[in-house]
Structure formats: C-alpha cells, structure tokens
Amino acid sequence: MGAVLLALAVFTVLFALGVLLTRDNFYAVVFMSATMILIAALYAVFQLQAVSILMIFIFVGAIGMVTIVLAATYRREAERQFSPRWAVFTAIAAFSAAYYLLTQHASQATAAGFELTLTPDLLLLVSSMAALIILVALSALRLMGGVSS
Amino acid sequence: MIYVLALVILLIAYLTAVSSKDLIRLLISLELMFGAVFLTLIPLFTAASETALGIAIVAIFVSSCELLILIAALILFDREKKSVLVDSVVVGGEER
C-alpha cells in the first residue's frame, strides 16, 4: 500500500510539473486533468471511492472538459509561461514548509481505509449541491446570452 | 506524506499562477490549487469520516461552481477585450 501511495504521489507531482512547464495551454489542461485523476486515485487508495468518483465526474468530466474546449478554442502561439525568479522563492517556501511538516510528525492518515456510509442527510446534501451547480450553470448561460444580445 | 504532497502541488499551482501570461493558464492553475486542497481533506477522514465527507461534497460542488463562473467570466472578458492575455486585464477605471 505504501509503495502504491508513493508511486501515485510521484506521478501526481510529475503531472503537476507538466502543467507548469508545458508551453501549450491545451497540453496544460490535459496534464491538469491527469493530476486530478491521480488525486482521485489517492482517495480510492484510502477506500474513499464515493469522493473519488465525484471528483472524477466533476473535475475531469465536467470542468476539465469545458477547460479543454476553452484551451482548444483560444489556442495561440505557444510560449513558455515560467518565471525563474518566482521559482526560487517557491522552492525556498516548499523546502522550509516540507521540512517543518516532516519534522513535526503531523498526524498522518493510514492507508488502512475508512468506513463510509451514505446517510440520507448526505444524499440530501449531494442533491442540493447538484441543484446549486445547475442553477449556477443556467445563470452563467443567461448572463452570456444577455451580453451577446 | 499527504500534507507534503498537497503543499508541493499547491506551490506548483502558485508558481503557474504567477508565471501565467493568459487567463486560461490562470484558470488551470486554480483547478490545480483546488486539487491540492482536496488532498488535505484525506487526513480529516480519520477523525470524523461523516463530517469530512460532508465537507468534501460541499467543497467539490462549490469549487466547481466557482470555476464555472470563472469560465463564463473568461468568455465574457474575451468578448469585451478580444483577448485572454493577463496584460489586457486592467483595474477599475485604469486606461490602457
């Protein structure tokens, strides 16, 4: 289980770096979708399949697809979008924070998994949140249509 | 390890955001930041799994709503300015 976690973590960071280093926005979205799938896979490793499926459906299936279409529509000449000056500050922040987290032995989840039960309250929450996202989508579509007319 | 992984992804997303030259890359970096935030939720399941599941559901739907609004705003911005470059974003009343 530990090796699976480590492998997933390494691939997640590699794909996230792909978002940073690629020149083309289209490939950046593809790398971002792959990163989200791997994050969802981490949830699945901890036996949290409900959250995992929800994340893949929404962040890859819905938002990811819309972003891919957006990136393909506004495709322009690819150029490097990487700031070395900021990279130095980010690396220093990453090292100091990771050192703090690793030395403080922050409470870590075990890979044993969690028991989850979908209670009626949680199902009500899911349905109301789905209603919210439909409402927001309709509002956004109406707003865009209003501006064009 | 989960916290460190979340931190590394969050910092990569921050670096992508500050380096981005167009709004689409900014949107992608924001989605990556949300991914990092979801990773930090995993340890919460050890303490209170039902509460954590509720928080995760609310966080997933609310963040996707926010991204949806941002996508709509991006399309509206392009219609207005005919560009999605970060340089074409001006603060209120600023002339360019």
CATH-defined fold name of chain B: Helix Hairpins
Query: Tell me, what's the shape of chain B?
Result: elongated
Strand fraction band of chain B?
Answer: under 5%
Most strands sheet of chain B: none
Instruction: Calculate Rg of chain A over CA atoms.
Output: 19 Å
- Radius of gyration of chain B from CA coordinates: 17 Å
> What is the oligomer described by this structure?
heterodimer
> How is the biggest beta sheet of chain A arranged?
none
Approximately what portion of the residues of chain A adopt beta-strand conformation?
Answer: under 5%
Derived from helix and strand composition plus strand pairing, the structural class of chain B reads mainly alpha
Total number of strands of chain A: 0
Spell the H/E element sequence of chain A.
HHHHH
How many structural domains are formed by the residues of chain B? Answer: 1
Distance between the terminal alpha carbons of chain B, to the nearest Å?
47 Å
Number of helices of chain A: 5
Q: What is the mean predicted local confidence, pLDDT of chain A?
A: 78
How many structural domains are formed by the residues of chain A? 2
Features:
heterodimer, A: 149 residues, mainly alpha, 2 domains, 5 helices, 78% helix, globular, B: 96 residues, Helix Hairpins, 4 helices, elongated
How would you explain this protein's 3D organization?
The complex is a heterodimer of chains A (149) and B (96). Chain A is an all-alpha fold and 149 residues long. Chain A has five helices and no strands. Chain A folds into two domains: 2-116; 117-149. Helix content of chain A is 78%, strand content 0%. The N and C termini of chain A lie far apart (56 Å). Chain B has one domain (2-84): Orthogonal Bundle (Helix Hairpins), CATH 1.10.287. In chain B, helix 2 runs antiparallel to helix 4. Chain B is elongated, with a radius of gyration of 17 Å. Classes of the chains: A mainly alpha (149), B mainly alpha (96).
